Fold this sequence. Notes:
Layout: H1 3-11, E1 25-26, H2 28-35, H3 43-52, E2 57-60, H4 74-82, E3 86-92, H5 94-99, H6 105-113, H7 119-139, E4 144-148, E5 152-153, E6 156-157, H8 161-167, H9 169-179, E7 186-189, H10 198-203, E8 208-211, H11 217-227, E9 232-235, H12 247-258, E10 264-265, E11 272-273, H13 279-291
Amino acid sequence: MTKIERILAAIRFERVDRIPKGEFYLEDGFVAELLGLKENVTFRDRVEACEVCGLDALAFSPSSSLREKDRIWDDLKQWRAETDFFIFALIDGPFQGTAKLFPSFTDFLLAIARRDPILPALVTEAVASSVELGLNALSAGANGIIIADDIAYQGGTLISPAALRKYFFPNLTELVEVLRAPTAPIFFHADGDLSLVLSDIINSGVDGLHSLDFSSLTDIANVRVATENILCLMGGYDLGWFSEENRTEKASELLAAASGGSGYIFGSSAGILGGELPVQQVTEVYQYVSNLGNTHRDM
C-alpha cells in the first residue's frame, strides 16, 4: 500500500498492510539530531527524517509569513508535489479561531461568560476565514483537513459544554459540511479530556479525532468504544513515554486501547516531535510499531 492508501484505509476502517503513523511536524532540532546534521535543516533532510520514523501522514499550517493568498500553502504544495505522504491541512476551528479575534484569551473567555452579543458575529467571521483557508488547501492538493480547536485540558472543557453547544459546535458542523463538498477526510484536533462533548464531536460529521490527550489509557479505550466504526483515532502516545524504559510496552498498550482492530493512526498526542526528545528512543518506538505489521482486522 502507498502512504495515502494506508491512511485512507485506516480512516475507512479497512484492512491495512501495517499500522499507519502520522505526526503534524518534526522540529529542526529533532531532524538535526536524528540525522547528525551540523548545518541548517533542508527540505530533503526533513523528508528523510520522516521516512526514518516511518511516517505516513503529516500536517501543515498556512504560512503566516506569506501574505499573498496564493502562497500561504506553499509548503503543503511542495510536499504534495515532491513526496508521497498523506498531507493534512491544519485550520482553526470556531472556538480557536474566534479566540484569535480578541486582544487576549482572557478577554475571549470573559466575553463568553458575559454572553457578549458580539460573539455570534465574531464566530461567523472566524468560520468564514477557516472555510476559505480549507478550500484553498484542498485546491492546493491537501489530502485531508484537520480542524484544530483546543477546547479542553486534562480536567475537562475550558468552558461549559452548554456554552460550546450554544456558540461553537453548530459552526463546527457548518465548517465540516462546507469542506466536505470536495471529498476529503476531516479530523478534529483538541488536547485534553473531551469525554463530556464526545457525542457533539461525533455529530459534527468529522471522520477522525486527533490527540487522545486523556489522563489514562482506560479513557482512550472508552473513546474507542464510543467511536468504533465512526471516527478514526490518531495520536495518544505521550511524549514523556519516549524516555521510559517500558516505552515499547506503552506503545502496545496504546494500540490495544485505541485501535480496537482498525481505524487508528499511531502518533504522539502532541503531534510535534521536538529537539528535546531522545531521538534514539523515538525511532525505537516507531520501528517497534512498524515491526508489529498488520494487527487490524477485516471490516
